Amino acid sequence: MRLGTLLRKDVPRCAELEQELFAGEDPWTVPMFVSEIEAGNYYIGAFESGDELVGYAGLAVVGAPPNAEAEVHTIAVDPRRQGEGIGKALLRELLAKADAVNAVTFLEVRTDNESAKGLYTAHDFEVVGLRKRYYQPSGADAHTMRRPSLTEREGRTS
């Protein structure tokens, strides 16, 4: 598997995976992905055997050091490939981008998604809030999670 920049040609596969993974919610569409890429946000794909997209992730960064903030917009892995470390690799790549600008990083995750919350907790995220009925149309709640900036994390170990 290799990680690389998500291109417009990859977007239809992203939308297919969205439909499969988030059918009970409001899955992202091709225009939504295109809009994110064209806005200059950081989107990457996980590719197997050439160009087969098996996962994707996106991050937006606003501001500049020392006040930069990042938000993980999405991480998704083909259900047939989950549990292989692809999501972890995608997350680590996003976090490296956030660390490069010393950004505090935020994300939302379903309160009942224990595997994702475990992954995020293992990467220094902590729950800082609750968003009631965040996901639609299901009305599922989300936790807001925060990962301190690189400077903040290094200060903890000093």
TrEMBL record:
Gene3D superfamilies: 3.40.630.30. One of its GO terms (cellular component) is ribosome. Residues 1-146 form the N-acetyltransferase domain. The keyword Ribosomal protein applies. InterPro entries: AcTrfase_RimI/Ard1 (IPR006464), Acyl_CoA_acyltransferase (IPR016181), GNAT_dom (IPR000182), MshD_Acetyltransferase (IPR050276). Residues 149-158 have a biased composition (Basic and acidic residues). Its EC number is 2.3.1.266. Residues 138-158 are annotated as: Disordered. It comes from the Bacteria. Keywords: Acyltransferase, Ribonucleoprotein, Ribosomal protein, Transferase. GO terms for molecular function: protein-N-terminal-alanine acetyltransferase activity. It holds the Pfam family Acetyltransf_1. This is Ribosomal protein S18-alanine N-acetyltransferase. It comes from Allokutzneria oryzae.
